[in-house]
Amino acid sequence: MNTINVGLVQRTWDMMAPIADEASRMFYDRLFELDPSLRAMFANANMDEQRQKVMQTITVAVHSLGRLHELTPAVEELGRKHAGYGVKRRHYATAGAALFDMLEWGLGDAFTAEARESWTNTYTTLAEAMQRAGSDRAA
Question: Which of 47, 57, 65, 68 has a C-alpha 20 to 30 A away from that of 126?
Answer without folding.
Answer: 47
